């Protein structure tokens, strides 16, 4: 088993230790995102039982249903890594499980972003009584802001990091600069 250099301190860890650390970090990230989804989803579920809900027009009801469905999808997708982990534990599939969980977490964040956008648009149109254009511009501004915070920095970092070393090899042994290796970024 090779030793990979990771982190700013040049920490040394085996491939399995690195995989365990990355898996734990991913599950902690999922907990944060899932808490946000569940909170917003719970509020959306409660809206249907308020007096204001019966006054919503067809367009606002459609926005509500769409945001509710996105919330259900985001909840399911963000819980999926837990199910994957539970189903494959002890079968030597942690690497594959981590890859799938990472993809699902990203998908869950995209669904959460869409849910926030539609829920915000619904509230701005209905409760704040803003015009359709104003509400749409404000919701779009929030989506752009969240995209800039959630996705763009990671995409920029990934683009500039170069290719990942094969099989978690030490970047020095593979002829790659450790500063350019994802393993070097911990």
The chain-level structural class is mainly alpha
Mean pLDDT: 79
Total number of beta strands: 2
Q: Which of globular, elongated, flat, extended, rod-shaped describes the shape?
A: elongated
Biggest β-sheet description? 2 strands, antiparallel
Low-confidence stretches: 166-186
Oligomerization state: single chain
Protein name: DUF6328 family protein
Keywords: Membrane, Transmembrane, Transmembrane helix
Pfam family, one: DUF6328
Biased composition (Basic and acidic residues): 169-180
What does this structure look like?
Keywords: Membrane, Transmembrane, Transmembrane helix. The protein is mostly helical and 186 residues long. The chain has helices at residues 15-47, 58-88, 94-126, 132-150, 152-160; strands at 3-6, 11-14. 67% of the residues lie in helices and 4% in strands. α1 (15-47) runs antiparallel to α2 and α1 (15-47) packs parallel to α3. The protein is elongated, with a radius of gyration of 21 Å.
Task: List the keywords.
single chain; 186 residues; two-stranded antiparallel sheet; 5 helices; 67% helix
Put the structure in a nutshell.
67% of the residues lie in helices and 4% in strands. The protein has 186 residues and is mainly alpha-helical. It has one domain.
Mind sketching the topology for me?
Elements: E1 3-6, E2 11-14, H1 15-47, H2 58-88, H3 94-126, H4 132-150, H5 152-160
